[in-house]
Design goal:
globular, Rossmann fold, 13 helices
Length: 343
């Protein structure tokens, strides 16, 4: 049986690749985090979506070095390596497909010790600590942006773009049926910081805009208390999120790799609030790619207030975007690379 292990920190695109391979007869096993945060009991969006796709999920208890000082979290670093080593010994996959992030590091290194080849995909414009280490052990490094190719050994790099959700491709030329529609999202888990600013700004926002607000679980109950026909809230739903994204005139959110690529692909105007603590300032650099093409207003989290949010949305509405011709067949390209390396 053709078996692969998928792992890494960016699961949205990875899942598209896994599902395509699965449909062609490959057996996929997923190494991931069942819970997003330390001590959290709710299942992560990654876990829910992977299980829904019928892919076996192994909860890897790995730790990371970057900005980690908690001794129990540091103990997880060697534990994660030995856990990955054991699981790989049992599974004996043909290869490992990594999507970066600290979770992928012990898996790829353990695979190298066992003679199991790996390839990795870099989503951001810079090289994170994880992929800098992983590239020493991986056969190939597929990158999203041509600008990031210089961060890795030339002989290993191939530019393929970012695997897009199929539903995103279907709305390539989106049109809004609702004027002044703003879609606000904090990602699968939501963003309490953004939500707080939104709740405070709602009286003013709803005078001019219709707001669709993806809150995450923690703030949903508060959002549902708002009784206004121009305000709609939900926890997390891929289908509702894509529908909102298709119709929105302006999108407000973080600037993770997948968010920025999808916004660039769709040509959506946005207000991007980078996570300041992101490794190597990667979220700001992601946002800058869109800002440089007049697709985004960057609003630093340190400057986020109800007033600055309102001003940024108004400024985003006035943008005159330059179209980004982004690669839209990265899923197929990565599937072909995997077949070449592991068949």
């Amino acid at each position: 049986m053709k078996r692969l292990v998928f792992t890494g920190g960016h699961h949205t695109g990875a899942l598209e690749v896994a599902k395509k391979l699965q449909s062609e007869g490959w057996h996929i096993v997923w190494f991931g985090h069942r819970h997003t945060m330390w001590g959290e009991k709710a299942d992560s969006g990654e876990y829910r979506e992977v299980i829904a796709a019928g892919i076996p999920f192994i909860d890897l208890k790995a730790g990371k070095f970057y900005r980690t000082f908690h001794p129990l979290k540091l103990i997880r670093i060697p534990y994660g390596f030995f856990q990955a080593l054991f699981q790989l010994l049992v599974l004996r996959p043909s290869g490992i497909v990594s999507f970066g992030g600290y979770l992928a590091v012990p898996t790829v290194i353990a695979g190298w010790f066992l003679g199991i080849p790996a390839i990795t995909h870099e989503q951001t414009v810079i090289a994170g600590w994880a992929n800098k280490l992983i590239c020493l052990f991986a056969r190939k490094i597929a990158v999203t942006w041509p600008q990031s190719a210089s961060n890795y050994p030339k002989s290993k790099v191939i530019v393929i773009g970012l695997p897009l959700r199929e539903d995103i491709k279907k709305i390539r030329n989106p049109k809004s049926e609702i004027r002044n529609l703003v879609y606000i999202t904090g990602g699968k888990q939501g963003s309490h910081v953004i939500n707080e600013a939104v709740f405070a700004a709602l009286p003013q926002l709803l005078k001019k805009y219709t707001v669709i607000h993806q809150t995450g679980f923690a703030d949903l109950s508060r959002a549902l208390e708002v009784k206004d026909s121009h305000y709609h809230a939900f926890d997390f739903s891929s289908s509702q999120g894509i529908s909102a994204l298709a119709q929105a005139e302006v999108v407000v959110g973080r600037s993770g790799a997948h968010t920025t690529y999808e916004l660039g692909f769709l040509g959506k105007k946005s207000v991007l609030i980078p996570i300041a603590s992101a490794s190597h300032n990667e979220q700001y650099l992601n946002a800058k790619l869109l800002a440089d093409s007049n697709l985004a207003i960057i609003l630093p989290q340190s400057h986020l207030t109800p007033q600055s949010l309102l001003a940024a949305i108004a400024s985003a509405q006035k943008l005159s975007p330059h179209k980004l011709n982004l690669i839209d067949d990265a899923t197929d390209k990565l599937v072909q690379l995997i077949k070449q390396q592991f068949s």
